[in-house]
Amino acid sequence: MTLSKKTQRIRKFLSYYAPYKGLLIADLFSSIFIAALALILPVCVRYITKDVLENGTENILATILQMGALMLAIIVVQTGFAMFFDYKGHDMGAKIERDMRMELFEHLQKLSFGFYDSQKTGQLMSRLTNDLLNLAELYHHGPENLVIYGTQFIGSLVILLHINLKLTLVICLFLPFMAIYSFVFYHRLQKAYARSRSRIADVNMQAEENLSGIRVVKSFANEELEIKKFSAENSYFYQSRANIYKNEALHFTVIEKFFTQLITVAIIVVGGIWIAGAALDVPDLLVFILYAAYLTSPVPKLAFMVQQYQDGLSGYRRFREIMDTIPEIRDAENALEIQITRGHVEFRNVTFRYNEEQDYVLRNVSLDVQAGETVAIVGSSGIGKSTLCSLIPRFYDVIEGEILIDGINVRDAALCPLRQQIGVVRQETFLFGGTVMENILYGRPGATADEAVEAAKKANAHEFVMELPNGYDTDIGQRGVKLSGGQQQRISIARVFLKNPPVLIFDEATSALDYNSEKAVMDSLRTLAKGRTLFIIAHRLSTVRSADRIVVLTKEGIAEQGTHEQLYALDSVYAKLYNTQDL
Ligand SMILES: Nc1ncnc2c1ncn2[C@@H]1O[C@H](COP(=O)(O)OP(=O)(O)OP(=O)(O)O)[C@@H](O)[C@H]1O
Ligand SMILES: [Mg+2]
């Protein structure tokens, strides 16, 4: 990475503080004050024990009370700062996290189908949640810890050196050992945490697979096998927990209990000897013990800060990775606000494949669909019917050739209006959690409830919806699981009936329906399709018999096209397909 690129990255990283500059400065100031005020307290102790009690002043009681009042004031101010810093500091981190999550989510909405084909949803989710949480911790605690522990360490070192140089050096002798020990064991502890996280993920996956496939498990009577598999994962997880506790004991306990007390003992022993030799006095020893904690506690924190920095930065790197992904499919410069008035769709020598490793799905396909025509695309499974149709709303871009709608190349059209004017019922139905009404209104968010009901009637959904416990207000469960496959399909058809676009694509939209329901939906579809261009993909050829034109797609491209009667009379590919289905 060149220097300028690196500075750019750092600048970008810091830019998330920009809206909260005031808050950041206030937070850093309160950190300094908290650390500095904490350093004053032992000075007061020294003043009372040494200057007042040992050396004696005129009015001992009054001076002690004054000092008490001063210390009380310090504590109150310090608490005030600490409260501000705890609340507002975390708040700032959470705000930055919120902003970044929003930015990421908005960007995810822009990325194309191709991006999602190659990503795992679980990993994207963890970028939206865990990564940003770690990052917020860094944004908030990173500078703050540096200031607090820095002030604490340097401040106490200066004061200790001022009180007694040699005794300070005694403490400093221990610090490198403490630092090395904490780095080594903190690193081991982090590894143990990471292993445990991956083990619990395995347990979750095993349990989720088992529970969602419990019907298969039971029908094969494989419960014993499942228990064995789960028991293995469960004990791996236990081992990882045990490893964490061992490493926590080695890290925290040794540092907090052993090292800290060891230093205190060293101060008392060495200091005691020096007091005996009159090289030190008791009040200084006392103050030394108080300050020693300030000097030593930042040392193990260093390992923690390094880890936090690494975690946060790797989260940030993954965040940028997505943010820097440019959507493959986006509006061209000067994109046209397409207005589909007729619905004339033309494929000109279209060639397409999903990626470079794969073979071409479509080669040099040309198809001219007249405005208002109903075209059925048929052909064997995996031949490219869905692919062909997904090129019209630009879910993917053609590799060669072009697709024109009303004479405008879809690549020149602005995406949003283009997609708003093409209605797609996809092969795989997807409904959102929520009510039936909410799901239908998804087709045209501003529509009225009456319009939604009208659309449901056309999709032959009204009757079954009215039989649901709360009618249109019935909650259909996550992804619509509380509805049957055919019911889900009818809701998704109603969604497009409500959208009412000039170009329609029905990809196996009625495959889950029985003969009568399908016939009813197809009848309304024919009414809707009047004056609109309609693409229908269906395996059940009886569904597409009445189409204006049937296009037969094969490996070689479009093999035949014409009406049912014409193609049947050809007695070739279509006739064979039709006859095998009739059997
Ligand atoms: N998102 C994708 N990424 C990579 N390859 C894909 C993707 N979607 C489909 N394919 C491949 O493209 C080819 C055509 O698939 P397509 O879904 O268009 O077939 P289809 O004719 O609609 O089949 P079916 O009748 O089974 O729905 C298949 O070989 C498939 O494996
Ligand atoms: Mg398909």
From TrEMBL:
What membrane topology was assigned to this protein in its record?
Answer: Multi-pass membrane protein
ABC transporter domain mapped to chain residues: 345-580
Which InterPro entries does this chain map to? AAA+_ATPase (IPR003593), ABC1_TM_dom (IPR011527), ABC1_TM_sf (IPR036640), ABC_transporter-like_ATP-bd (IPR003439), ABC_transporter-like_CS (IPR017871), P-loop_NTPase (IPR027417), Type_1_exporter (IPR039421)
* Cell compartments where the protein resides: Cell membrane
The Swiss-Prot or TrEMBL record annotates one GO molecular function as:
ABC-type oligopeptide transporter activity
**Protein's UniProt name:** ABC transporter
Instruction: Enumerate the PANTHER family for this protein.
Output: ATP-BINDING CASSETTE SUB-FAMILY B MEMBER 10, MITOCHONDRIAL (PTHR43394:SF1), ATP-DEPENDENT PERMEASE MDL1, MITOCHONDRIAL (PTHR43394)
Domain called ABC transmembrane type-1: residue spans: 25-311
Q: Which UniProt keywords apply?
A: ATP-binding, Membrane, Nucleotide-binding, Transmembrane, Transmembrane helix
GO CC annotations, alphabetized: plasma membrane
Q: Where are the transmembrane segments?
A: 21-48, 60-85, 146-163, 169-189, 258-279
